[in-house]
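Reviewer comment 2.1 asked that we show a complete input and output for one of the modelled complexes. We chose the zinc ion case, as it is the one discussed in the main text.
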Amino acid sequence: MLIDIHSGDDLLKEEYMKLAINLARATAHQTSPNPAVGAVVVNNGEIVGMGAHLKAGEAHAEVNALSMAGDRAKGGTIYVTLEPCAHFGRTPPCADLIIKKQLSKVVIASSDPNPLVAGLGIEKLRNAGISVETGVLQEEADALNSVFFHYIRQRTPYVTLKMACSLDGKTATAGGESKWITCEASRLDGHTQRRIHDAILVGIGTVMADDPKLTARSESIAENPIRVVLDTHLRIREDARVVTDGAAATWIFTGRTIDGDKARRLQSEQVTVIRLPSESIAIKDVLNDLGQKGVTSLLVEGGSAVHGSFLKAKAFNRVIAYIAPKLIGGRDAVPAIGGTGIRYLADVPELSIKNVERLDQDLKVTLIPKAG
Ligand code: NDP
Ligand code: ZN
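Response of the prediction step:
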C-alpha cells in the first residue's frame, strides 16, 4: 500500500487555508481593482512558502509564495484563496507556474468569479496530473472579495449605503440641524469607510448645504476616494470645496440640459463634468458609467433624496447605519431615506443583519439584501 506523505498536510488543510485567508485579509483594500488573494505552500508537513498579492500589476499570491518556497515547492501542496489564473494578464498564468514547479496538489477556496474563465485554471492543473480540491473555507474567502466578485460579474460598483441617523431614522431636525446626531466614534468609523472605497457619492443638496470635503482625511490624493456628485442642472458653486480643494478627483454627473460655459469653466485636472443624455439622472446609468470607468466600490453618503433614489432603484449591496440613541421626531425632520419611498410592503427589499457593533454611544448595524 502506498503511504500518502501528504495526509498530514491534508488534516491541517483548514488551518493552512485560514492562514492564506488571513494573508489576503491583511492586504484587502490595497489590491483594488484586483482581488485580495493569499497562498501558502506546504511540503511534508512544513510551511515552505507564503505570499499575498500586494498591488494591482504586481505578482500574484501564488508567485510570491512559490518564489519563497523555491525548490521545496516540488511535490508539495499549495493552498490558495482564489482559483489560480489560467490566462495571460499583466503577469503569466499561475496555473502554468504551479505545473512547472511540480506541485502535487492545489487546494482552492473560491473559484474564479468570472463566468468566462471559471474552472479553466482548475482544468489546466488537472490535465497536468495535479490533484485539485475546491471549496475549502469558501464562504470565508468569498466574503473577503465580495466587492471584487460583484464587480467582475456585474461590471458595476458594489454599493454601500451609509447613513447616520437618530433611533427614529432622522438625519436632521425640522429646523435643518444635522451636526452632529451621531457620536465622534461613528464619524471616525465613517471616514475609515471612505478610505476603503474607490468612490463616494452625494447629491447636490448635500454639497449646497454643507460644502463638504468628502475626503478620507488623507494627505495623499491617491488615497482619497473619487468624489461623485449628482447635480442634474449643474447648480454646484464654482467655489465649492469639492471643486477647488485639490484633495481628490471630483466627477459631477448632470442631465442633458446644463450651462455649457459653466461646465467648461468647472472642468479641470480635478473636476470632470459627465453629462448624461437624459433630462434626469437615473441611478443605473450612473452605476454603469462608474463601472466602465473602473470604480469597483461606491459609498453612498446621502443625503436623504439620493438615498431615496438608491432604495427605489434597489441599487445597493450593503447598508451601514450609524444609529444614535436620540429621538428627534417630527413630521418635518429629515428622514435618512427620503424620496417617494416604497408604496407596498411586498416591494420592500428584505435585509439581513450581518453585524451589530457598539461604537461608544451609538450602534453600527451592517446589513445586506437577502438573496432572491
Ligand atoms: P441630497 O444630497 O440627497 O441631494 C438631492 C439633490 O440631488 C436633488 O434635489 C437633486 O437636485 C440631485 N439629484 C440628482 N440626481 C438625483 C437622483 N437620481 N436622486 C436624488 N437626487 C438627485 O440632498 P437632500 O436635500 O436630500 O439632503 C441634504 C441634507 O442631508 C443636508 O442637510 C445634509 O446636511 C444632510 N445630510 C446628512 C447626512 C447624515 O448622514 N446625517 C449625510 C448627508 C447629508 P437637482 O435636481 O438639482 O439635481
Ligand atoms: Zn495568477
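Confidence is low (pLDDT under 50) at residues 1-5. We note this here for comparison with the apo prediction described in Section 3.2.
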